[in-house]
């Protein structure tokens, strides 16, 4: 297909463009599809038959609850990684080593073949490979191979169930391995929990001994302090404060009484002397009690601190004693949080290969891959393929499309001799007539003789065949037509017409003969005249650019209604640029699926500077099967006649 966009505007892509690519590249698609299906069949019937067996486990979140002390044991079973940890433990190397040892898998042919590997074994036998890659060809560990190729852990969504699946060529062996692995996993879990309980018990026992010594030491300190301070009992600080308050209140009352009787009695009065004596005695007792309070308060504070330490040590000691007994009981009666829900049983149907699934996948992949390869090939193909490549991609006019004719009608110029099909319906003939009509409309505003220049970017693209057929078509439309073989380097028209090349254009330009003797009238009975190239020259470009050539072409235009120049490829030589000065319309022949689009990009620059009034592209040798895509836009395919030769 054409590119999605170009300098000439955005191109609209239709579904028929994709259909066209698929239909045109159907051979590639079918080849790719057939290859993939063939590979699928080969691998399906050469793949080893493998059975699978699954044991279903229930793994519950359960904390051991051995201790309440985080510094002794931390076990966060509510973590989101808990189950992932359990799945990885099921694939653990230690667990699988125990399985291999118990099931005697060291001599299992299937596991041994996976460990050594065919390719790895073959490479190790090659001396030059072993010398370079020897360290990378060491056999893998059996437990790693088993976990990677023979074991599958499949959690059941939204549940606490997990399926432990084992693959093996023997269905009974697969079931035995799955059940043994589940049992070993439960035993490992119990062993781990028992070891945790045992370690916790040992840790508690050690701390019990430390706390026992600490309690004894605290009691000893408390007793020693009581003996040092002769403390039989420690009165409460609240009682001591109440005594002082009462004594001070009594003192205040006595002092008030003394003040009252001082107004009535002299200081030497016995009542005043007695009252003063009571006041002094009470004051002395208060001061003594305050001093004693300070001493006893300091001793009480120290005593309370020692007593708290001893009581705290006793509480921790009692708690550890209780936990020690509980842990010891749990260690003896430990229960697992993992249960086997379903035992693995031998499956009668193999898990691999899956013929129907493999064939379906091969068909889908082959079809998608073939379509992708078709579009990739179309994208990488730089040649012209559809009209949009010319009209939208390059911004050039497309005059017509000429289909490829059957072999029975093929001429010596890789094309068709139109004039010989007058009575035979043929799509190529209709395409030539359509091209003739398009050129007549292009030249309708010009009076007198019309000159056509027929060229191509490269050789072998059919320009000479198109020029020959156009000459016959214009003659049938009652145009006096002259066909000039202006390809002085590699002339070919004379061979197709069965004429000689001894007298022609080059001879006329060099005055070796006159134009009358050089022109072949009614050549081969086709009704038009023909001027061959003539003798070979070393300087054709200079000869075509002379004044004599200009006079000759001007004279020929006076005699004929249509002059057709068959020129050299314009990318090879400069002859075309010289001859374009003497033509009105340029017809560039591009071969379907051969002419590179890059070779047509310079057409506007090469021919736009000459005297050409217009120029366009003719797509030649188009595959007849492309007619569905082109919708008969440029020609009708066999309308009104029999089916053309394929």
Structure, described:
With 646 residues, the protein is of the alpha/beta class. Among the domains are: 1-47 and 354-381, no CATH class; 224-329; 383-630, Rossmann fold. It is built from 23 helices and 13 strands. It has a seven-stranded parallel beta sheet. Strands 4-5-3-6 form a four-stranded antiparallel beta sheet. β4 and β5 form a beta hairpin. α5 crosses α8 and α10 (237-261) runs antiparallel to α11 (270-332). Residues 1-11, 64-78, 407-416 and 630-646 have low confidence and may be disordered.
Terminus-to-terminus distance: 25 Å
CA-atom Rg in angstroms: 57 Å
CATH C-level name of the domain at 383-630:
Alpha Beta
| Mean pLDDT over all positions | 78
- Major sheet attributes: 7 strands, parallel
- Stretches where pLDDT is under 50 for at least 5 consecutive residues are 1-11, 64-78, 407-416, 630-646
Per CATH, which architecture of the domain at 383-630? 3-Layer(aba) Sandwich
Strand order of the largest sheet: 7-13-12-8-11-9-10
* Anisotropy-based shape: elongated
Q: Report the portion of residues in β strands.
A: 5-15%
Number of helices: 23
What is the CATH topology descriptor of the domain at 383-630? Rossmann fold
Percent helix, as a range, is 40-55%
The CATH H-level homologous superfamily of the domain at 383-630: P-loop containing nucleotide triphosphate hydrolases
- For the secondary structure, the number of strands is 13
Structural class: alpha/beta
What would you say about this model in short?
By secondary structure, the chain is an alpha/beta fold.
